[in-house]
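YM 10:42: FMN dependent NADH:quinone oxidoreductase sequence, as discussed on the call
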Amino acid sequence: MKKILNIISSPRGEMSFSNKLGNALIGKISAEYPGAEVMVRDLTHGIFPHVHAGQLEAFFTPSDQQTDLQKASVRLSDELIQEVFDADILVLNVPTYNFSIPSSVKAWLDQVVRAGITFKFDENGPKGFVTGKKAYVAISSGAVFSEGPFKENDFVEPYLKTVFGFIGITDLNFFRVEGMGIPALSETALEKALQSIEQYQLI
Ligand SMILES: Cc1cc2nc3c(=O)[nH]c(=O)nc-3n(C[C@H](O)[C@H](O)[C@H](O)COP(=O)(O)O)c2cc1C
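YM 10:58: structure's back
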């Protein structure tokens, strides 16, 4: 049975276009893999924890030498990493905020991309340990980034490709609901995005 990990980062709940797109992706994947289990990690409840000094120190302390406080400070990171390792498929719902990902997604990545656990550096360079996964990214934006003058200002897709690739997740597929801030486009943007999912061949 496939396990899907859905990362939610828009605080707009059911109104969110990235969530609508992410849900359509989950629907499509679940139809392909009946009985697929969906685990949700919602980053929007309160302020998602940033890496802090004590935690960083704990990351680099062997677990059998960690104090109780250090053990507690790595617990969330351990849990988030386990969720990623447990999943076969990741579905990431991401709004575009100031040309990039929401800070909650960056904070989540800072907890998940951990030396010695999800990647390492050796004489051959970086090596990601999170292999054999597929990831689907549902991006929403006010402007259009897939083509036209803003294309070069898109720091969502290139960044996610880089950081996921770094930990070993290289099979990434991007879907966009875009132009939500442009009246001439916003009326049909969601329908167009949903159609792109419908027509997509899952492999
Ligand atoms: C804080 C903030 C920053 C935003 N920055 C951008 C931006 O740089 N480029 C853009 O095209 N849209 C931007 N938007 C618009 C959102 O990407 C757009 O409304 C999107 O639909 C939000 O995602 P959601 O519907 O999943 O919540 C921004 C919205 C907010 C709230």
